[in-house]
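Query form — protein Natural resistance-associated macrophage protein 2-like isoform X1

QUESTION: What is the three-dimensional structure of this chain?
INPUT:
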Amino acid sequence: MPTTDTESSFIEETCKEVDHSPNHHKGLTENPSIDADYGEQQTLRSNRSTYFEQKIHIPTSEASIFSFRKLWAFTGPGFLMSIAYLDPGNIESDLQSGTVAEFKLLWILMWATVLGLVMQRLAVRVGVVTGLNLAELCQRIYPKVPRLILWIMIEIAIIGSDMQEVIGTAIAFYLLSNKAIPLYGGVLITIVDTFTFLFLDKYGLRKLEALFGFLITVMAITFGYEYVRVAPTQTEVVKGLFYTWCSHCDSKALLQAVGIVGAVIMPHNLYLHSALVKSREVDRSKRNEIKEANKYFFIESAIALFVSLVINIFVVSVFAEGLYNKTNADVHELCLTNNLLHASDFPNNTNNVEADIYKGGVFLGCQFGVAAMYIWAVGILAAGQSSTMTGTYAGQFVMEGFLDLHWTRWKRVLLTRTIAICPTILVAIFSNIDDLTGMNDLLNALMSLQLPFALLPTLTFSSSVAIMGDFRNGVINKVIASVLSVMVVGINLYFVFNFTQSALPHHWAVYVGIAIFMFLYVLFVLYLVGIFLVVLGWKQLVTVSYIGKYLREPYMLEPQLSHSTPVFYS
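ANSWER: The structure tokens for Natural resistance-associated macrophage protein 2-like isoform X1 are given below.
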């Protein structure tokens, strides 16, 4: 299909920083003014950067297949990404899974993590190949209104995750102080400690990454201690991982299985990971270096997510062994027997325990001594603090990418933390801890709704010839990623539907509001799907009356170019 004059002009405008001569990767063009503008943009970007003030040099190695030195140089971004799989929301989902379905949902946790790895790999490839993160690509490719909607949706996901981290940290302080620090006090402490941690990146990128590695190690040790202390039946753990069925599971277990998938795959994490990989020196003019970076980043991500999976298995197994089929009266009596002050947190009735990260810690203290409760709280604190910092970086990258708005870190933290803290502290002051921990279900539902706005751009960019060149997704990758994305989005919408049915008031005004929201929501998702289909080759969509013109601009990014390298370079 020939390229029209309009398309050609758009292509020129979009790709103006790129020269397709052999030297274009060095920033050289035939127009000195373009070189000057490009240099000024790069200088401005480097002056405003936060995480990328230092780039890690990749050592040369004689080993052609694999080098541990190179793997070590690439190690860092994947572990920062994996923290989103260990945030307080995920930990609560884990313990609820064990409490409700024993070991029977471990296989879903494992395959959800594998699915997460598949999607993270696509996001990494986009960042490595183009030198731009997902937010920056959205800003360059989507029209103004859609990209603003995308930005708002991802910001909502970041704030929702931030609230979960605030809740987890506040509960950790509440447990560690044996109720001496009230919940609202713990919420306020998170403001101070976040600002404190943010200054640590001044000591260098590797030291910052080492701090995150330390926090992951703390989680592994604390939750691993609980695993060893509880000593779950190992055959049941293995069976739960590889027996892909849930026999005799009720509707609660089914909903919990859906919740696991929703909790594991975080929308803003794809944007975060695509940005973090820019911290390594990769010469994008050399195809072999791009392939090498993709390979080592994938290996590192796989290792990091394996570690996160092991930690999540620890948590599920601890409560599958300890709280499955336990009633409130059972735990109440246990706490009284061991003279723990928290017996009143479990009413003396025959209802099954509805676990959360607070009651989970109390149970461990009642069953195995107060040390077990404090160790659990330290693990929750590490989860909350680490995910708080990665959430702040995600917010920074998203804001800078979508809006080209460069705020200093303290301003960004102040904004998102204020939005997250206001409703949380009101609940902490005027309600009880059950209401505070119950907010996690609402927040998981909220973030589940945002998932298509990360998955669809990732699939679109990674499948585009114009953006990725020879590194675009192959047919098998496209099919697998597309099917998995449809499945994940469907699962998450089912979770949201069930949550709204049980949690929202049954009033006609509520139903009308939900109907209007869902109509607009589905309409926008279909728009993103349409762009993805055009990128896959369904060019005829552009000719459809009324809707074709809205797909035309992204469609122009698929010109009949002969180049074999990506269009965009930073």
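ADDITIONAL NOTE: DSSP finds 24 helices and no strands in the chain.
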